[in-house]
Structures are given as C-alpha cells and as structure tokens.
Amino acid sequence: MPKKVDHEARRQEISEALWRLASTRGLDGASLRDVAAEAGISLGRLQHYFRSKDEMLLFALQHINRLAGERIRARIEALPEEPTPREVLRACLSGLLPLDEKSRVGVLVGAAYFARAVYDEPLRAEAKNGIPQLRALFADQLRRAAERGELPPERATEDEAMLLISLVDGLSTYVLLDVHGPRTALRLLDLHLAQL
C-alpha cells in the first residue's frame, strides 16, 4: 500500500529548505533544483507540490508570516498574567529582532523577500499583509499605556506604532550588517520604550 504523504506538511518542509538557502544566498540564488536537493527530494517531486518557483516563493512567504504570528502570540502568552502594555510591546518587538541564530535566519529570509517583493506584485501584497495587524496591535498597547497614565495620550497613535515597527526594522538591518550586535539592538529598543 502506498505511503500517504501530508501534502501541506511536505510543502512546509520545502519552504523551510528554501529559507535555509535564502538565508545564505538570497531568493534568486535558490533554484528549484537547489531547493529540491536541500529538501532531499527530486526536482520532479518538488514540482508535484509547486508548479513554479513563484508559487513556491509565495507559499513560503505565507508560511513564514504564519509562523511569525504564532511566535508573537506565544511570546505574549508567556508573559505574566496581566502584562503591562510595555511588557507586551517589548515581547513583540524583541521577537522581531535577530537576537539568536534562528531569528537571524528568519530576518535574513525576510530581507531576501523584501528585496524581491519590491519588484514582484504578489510577493509585495503578501509581505504587506501582516503590517496593518501588527500596527493595530501596537497602537492598542500604546492606547492602553495612555489610559494607565504611562504614556502621553498624543503618543498613543498608529503613527507611533508604525515608528516602533520601523525602529525594529532598522535595528535588525544593522545587526545583519554587523554595525552593532543583538545586545546593543535590544538595549536601544529598551531605551526607546523607556523614552516613550
């Protein structure tokens, strides 16, 4: 009797093989043949799961976005019973920084997607997809902080939330470029949160 394969799980495994390659050579440096070899399957088998490289890239981006959302939820759930808005913001924002090897790979893959998404409309649409939800989450925490008297009300805005996202993007870039290390990035994040 033929072995039953979980189609979705196999597509996720292929995505993870793509990420390993993209973290060292970018997306354009990862051919379908390379991804198949990294995943330990034949090119024909890979094409059974993805008809084209574009389809594979889009699925892999959707998968990494789902995992990022799950990681943020897990960080929030790991906080004490009634976390302060600052604790929630710090947990989420620090979770977006490349503080260890696993998160560094994730940020490198994100950078590879960013470079390609600038010119690829389907990837751009997917890459932008999570930003409004993240901005809304951060803005909600800023409003909670203002209600608690921990933040001037005029700082509790979606613009301020977007500035937090931009801060982490910039800090991440400089960690990847070795301008500063992960500890410095975390210290600068904490400094900014304290100044809010």
Largest sheet: none
The geometry reads as: elongated
Helix/sheet category:
mainly alpha
* Integer tally of domains: 1
Order of helices and strands: HHHHHHHHHH
CATH class: Mainly Alpha
Range of strand content? under 5%
Report helical residue fraction: over 70%
Note the total helix count: 10
User: Care to count the β-strands?
Assistant: 0
The name CATH uses for the topology is Tetracycline Repressor, domain 2
Roughly what is the average pLDDT, rounded to an integer? 91
**Uncertain residue segments:** none
Please characterize this protein's 3D structure.
With 196 residues, the protein is mainly α. It is built from ten helices and no strands. α4 runs parallel beside α7 (121-129) and α8 (131-147) packs across α9. The longest helix has 25 residues, at 53-77.
Would you spell out the secondary-structure blueprint of this structure?
Elements lengths: L6 H19 L6 H8 L3 H7 L3 H25 L7 H11 L5 H17 L3 H9 L1 H17 L10 H19 L5 H14 L1
Helix pairs in contact: 1-2, 1-4, 1-6, 2-3, 4-5, 4-7, 5-8, 5-10, 6-7, 8-9, 9-10
What's the gist of this structure?
The chain is an all-alpha fold and 196 residues long. The chain contains ten helices and no strands. The chain has a single domain (7-195), classed as Orthogonal Bundle (Tetracycline Repressor, domain 2).
